[in-house]
Amino acid sequence: MLQDQYDQETGSTTVRSRSDPALQEIEPRPRAAVAPAIIVALLIGSIVSTTAWFLMVPQPLIIQGEADATRIDIAARVDGKVAKRPVERGDNVDKGQLLYQIANPELLTKLAEEKAAKASAEASLANIDAGTRQEIISQRSAAVEAARANAVLAQQTYDRTKQIVSAGSAPIQRLDDATNSLVVAQRAGEQAKLAYEEAVNGYTKEQREIAAAAVSQAQAAIDTVQAQVDELNVFAPVKAQVYQIGAESGEYVSPGVPLLSLVDLSDVWLTFDLREDLVKGLKVGDRFKAKVPALGDREIEAVVKVIATKGEYADWRATRATGDFDLRTFEVRAYPDPPLPELRPGMSVYAVPPGVQK
């Protein structure tokens, strides 16, 4: 095949064949960017396919909860000033360990008064149980003899006066005086006799019961004040960790004022709030897997122990008004099995809903 070529130097035209090497050097070569374009197209197609696959395949539902533990809030039972607080926040305390010591001198004084009142009541009861002293009985017996002698004298005086008045030797007024003296002497003799019998017989059963009741009442008053005094020393009810401090040394506290909070790290659980459609089929005793981000996404196994519905709120609306069903929220409480000592209250946990893991 021939091709015309114009020679600018000579102004003539030369006809050459395509097989001429000089002509082949000036022919355009094939493009070298075809292969990279194909690779880019393949990558784009792969990305599009992968994205479409992720969009079409449903991702598993992840729920988030948190770790919680038994919290014990300890409040003051009596008023007073904080005299001693040997614990700090974060300390581990044993059951029965001293947490607070409250000073209340007035309460201690009242306890001493009640103890003195009981001692007086016990002395009265002991006096009744001992009965009447022999000296008192002898004194009452002498009083009876004296009263008898006075009555005899008054009788004799009355008899003589009556004879004289009958003979007309004395006025009738003198007889009246003698009669009155005789009656007084007789009544005095009766009173002396009754007093002597009272001394011999001692105190009555009712008097002894009254004295015993006074002792019991005094003991009850002591127990009441002693119970308040015992509350001046606040001890840990269980083995736990000090979570929060509410009263400092020297601060005045009143009954009901929070002193501190304890958290029982031996009773840590996981809590989740789930819609009721996610609780379907879930029952107490079911096991599921969960992960703890604070522990490096450590996987733990938990056992469902509590499934409880949560309260309704003011914004609840009837199904007929919304055109849809209102889903309640349930609290699911699960305990790690085996227990995880590193798990602390407040740590986040996440998992696939227990009912979906089956």
Main attributes of the structure:
Elongation Factor Tu (Ef-tu), domain 3; alpha+beta; 4-stranded antiparallel β-sheet; 8-stranded antiparallel β-sheet; 42% helix; 14 strands; 8 helices; 358 residues; disordered N terminus
**Unreliable runs:** 1-13, 22-27, 314-321
The CATH homologous superfamily name of one domain equals Efflux pump adaptor protein, beta barrel domain
Count of distinct strands:
14
CATH class of one domain: Mainly Beta
Order of helices and strands: EEHHEEEEHHHHEEEEEEHEEH
Q: Please tell me what the overall shape is.
A: rod-shaped
Radius of gyration, taken over Cα atoms and rounded to an integer in Å: 55 Å
Largest β-sheet summary: 8 strands, antiparallel
Average pLDDT rating: 80
Strand content range: 25-35%
Proper CATH architecture of one domain: Beta Barrel
Tally of separate helices: 8
N-end to C-end Cα span: 79 Å
User: How would you classify the helix and strand content by structural class?
Assistant: alpha+beta
User: Approximately how much helix is present in the residues?
Assistant: 40-55%
CATH fold group of one domain: Elongation Factor Tu (Ef-tu), domain 3
Report on the structure:
- This protein has helices spanning 21-25, 34-56, 105-130, 134-167, 172-201, 205-230, 319-322, 354-357, and strands at 2-7, 12-17, 63-75, 80-84, 92-93, 98-103, 233-235, 240-245, 252-253, 258-275, 287-292, 298-309, 329-336, 348-351.
- The chain has 358 residues and is α+β, with helices and mostly antiparallel strands.
- The chain has a domain at 63-67 and 265-357: Efflux pump adaptor protein, beta barrel domain (Elongation Factor Tu (Ef-tu), domain 3).
- Strand 11 and strand 12 form a beta hairpin.
- The two termini are 79 Å apart.
